[in-house]
Structures are given as structure tokens and as C-alpha cells.
Amino acid sequence: MQTRLLCKGIILIKSSKNRQEGNMEKASITRGSLQVLLPLVPAISVVAWLVALVLPGGGFHLSLPTLLLLAGTILSVAAWVQYTRTISRPYPRILQRGNEITGDLEGLSQALVKVSTGDLAASVSVQAPTALTVQRGDIFPIAQLFNRLGTAILESVNGFSALTDPPCRRLCYVGSDSFAEGRMNGDIIGKLTGGQGKIAILVADIRSVNHALRRKGVLSTLAEKYPGVVTVGTADTNENTETTYQRTKEFLLQHRDLKIIYVSEGGTPQAAAQAIVDLDRGATTKVVTHDLTAETIPYLERGIIAATLSQAPFAQGYNPVIHLYNHIVAGWEPVAPRLLVNLVSINRENYRTYWEALTGGNSTSSVRQGHVSTPMERSTSGNSRVGRDERIKIAVLCVSENGFWTPVAQGAKAAGLDLADKNVQVDLIIPEASKDGILSAGTYAPV
After folding, report:
1. Is-above-0.90 flag for pTM?
2. 104-132 core/surface letters (b: 16 or more CB in 10 A; e: else)
3. Residue 441: left (phi > 0), alpha (psi -120 to 50), or beta?
4. Please, what is the Cα angle at 120 between 114 and 121, to 5 degrees?
5. 158 vs 409, more confident
6. Which numeric CATH code is attached to 178-310?
7. Between residues 57 and 344, the one the model is more confident about
8. What residue ranges do the domains of the chain occupy?
9. 305-310 and 344-346: which strand pairing?
10. pLDDT tens-digit map of 160-201
11. pLDDT category of residue 285 using cuts at 50, 70 and 90
12. Which residues pair with 305 in a beta bridge?
């Protein structure tokens, strides 16, 4: 029944298209006639004016009819110029856009038919439309309508293609839940402020999913549990230390009673803390942030950074390697597509324990060992994807070996050491694009 109805819909679309083509042909013929006649209007007017002005009796005679004819000539020329600007010139581009939209709809219709007949990998590809720009006039609303149609079709096609894209080969996700991180920090902020006061938010990039989710997590917790906490503003920093420093100073100078600066990333909170110190506001304003790095330690010791949320970076480097190995040699499968790490709030009282664990100073620490997975033995059954003595190579793409990524890289290297006696080679790779600050899906997206 669904297939039959769908096919009826396609037939209607095609019938409508045929009627549109007939109407467009008629319009094209009419427009062609107008294009031939309209330029003649000012020419005929000029000739008539000259005949009226230069009479057979000789000499020039200016009379009321002649003046009226002259005015008519000027108006006809002005009308012709306006027609050329607002209708004649943009018309071919609008006609072309209409044909493009018709073609895109045909492609979408054909893909829908394929899906209805069992082809769940059908896809549609359209190019992003270039906006039509025309002079304001009678045809301007039509151009705007075509612009909206092109955008709507592009969004529909992208949505359809996303549903039918072939699944990637990602085994699982290992990492934190960004929204949950924000929720946890929101609770920390609420307690630090006593449920009352002003805060400001600094995000690396509000368009970035993880930073936007962290911010939303903070705001949702504050709205639910601490309505007395007021957010005075949010600023982007592009994870740049100088920008973070300047934005923090601006907030501090504008709001003398600011209690918390929330920094949604772990690369620049030390800059926010330094701005607080430089303005001598350390007794009244604190920083709440993410991750534990060498740069944040001095400010944690002084209490300027009141709390930072660790997302088990060592485990994020170690566990994926072990999971891949276990999947290859024993057919291991994750219990869920997202394997979330433990989140820990770190402050002046407990930072030493976690810093030693993260940097490997205490390799037997339960803090570190409690987050990591265990290598499995190679299976002799059909679960193994390799021979019993076959060498395995695992590549780890890491953004950097600095800051937050230091313990991540250490975790990947530690996994390589633990698997070395199992005939496994683990290579840590920092892509060249990352060194240039480019973190694109083309480099890191799963295949």
C-alpha cells in the first residue's frame, strides 16, 4: 500500500512538472514577443517626436502636443530601462533556477521510489544553490520564493541522505557525555555560589557541539536547581589564551559582584585565573572549568580555580586500543555504542592524587587502574579475525601530545606497551592537519 501511494505521489509530481513545462514554454513565447516589441516603443516615440518637431514647412515648432510627445518618450525610455533591470535580465536566471529545482525534486522522487522498493542505501546529491539577487520590483518576490525553495529542498535532501547513509565502521565511542559534564559543573557552580549570584560563561566556540552541550548542561542545572544564579553573558574565545584573558577582564570590570567564570574547555582556564589575579579579585571570583593540565595546577593550589572536571583522559587513550585489540582477537563487542568514562571533580584538596595518576607518577593508583580495560586472550574459534600468531597493527590518531592530550597520548602508549608481548604494534600519529590547527571530519571522522 505504501509503495502504491508513493508511486501515485511521484506521478502527480511528474504530471505537475509537465504542466509547468507547458506554462513555462507559453511564458517564454510571450516574453519573446515582448522582448521584440518593447525596444521598439522608445524608438517609435523618438521618430514620432522628430516628425512632430521638424515640420515640412521648416523650422522647429514647440507646441503642447510636441511637449506631451516628448514627455511620453522620456517615460517610455524610463519604463524600458526599468523593465530591463528588474525583469528582462533576471528572468533567465530565475528560469534556470526553476529548472534546477525541478531536477532536484525529480532526484528526490526517484530516491523515494528506491527506498519504497527496498533500496535503503538510496541517496540524492544536490549542490548548494547560489542566491538569486535581483532589483526590487514585481519579480523580486518571485526570486525570493525561489531562493527559499532551493534552501528547503537542499535541507530535505540532506536530511533524506543522512537517513540512508551507509553505517560507518566505528566500533564504539569512548569518552565523556558533554551535556552530563555541563550538568555536573552546573551543580558545582550552584553550590559554590550558595544558589545566588552572577556568573559569566566562556566557550571555545558556541557552534561546536561539545562546547554548546556543556554550556546547555550548566544552564539547565542552574535553571532547575539554582534559579538565583544569573548568567550575565557568554563569550567565544576560540580557545585562545589572550582572548580568554581579555574577555575575563571585561566581565570582571563590568560586574564587580561576579562570583564565577565558567570556562567550557581545558586549554585556557589559566588565562581566566590570571585575569582574576591581576585585578585582585581572587577572594570573590573563582573559575570552574574542565580537565587537569600542568598550566591549571598553580591556580588550583591557590584556589583561584575552584573546581575542574576530569574526563579520565588516560582511559580515553588506553581503552580504545584495548577494545580494538579485543574485538580483533576475540570478537569482543561493546555493550553500548557509547562507552562513557567516569567524571571526577578535582579541587585544591584532591588534585595531587589525580595529577599523579594522570601523569603516571603512581601507575598502580586505583584512580588510574579503575578506568582501564583488560586485554583478552586470542580466540582459537571463529571469533578471531586474525591468525593466532599474526601480527596486528593499531594506529591511534591523536590531536596533540600537549595540554589535555598529554595523558590521552600516554594512555595510548601504555596500551601499546601492554600489548607488545602479544605481537601487537601500536602507533601514535599526530596528523599534519592537527599541527596546523585543522580538526576536520576529513581527518578524524570514522570511515
Report:
1. no
2. bbebbbebbbbbbeeeeebbbebeebeeb
3. alpha
4. 95
5. 409
6. 3.40.50.2300
7. 344
8. 2-164, 178-310, 313-444
9. antiparallel
10. 776 666 667 889 999 999 999 999 999 999 999 999 999 999
11. very high
12. 287
Identify whether the C-beta of residue 69 lies closer than 8 Å to the C-beta of residue 45: yes
Cα of 408 vs its chain's centroid, Å: 25
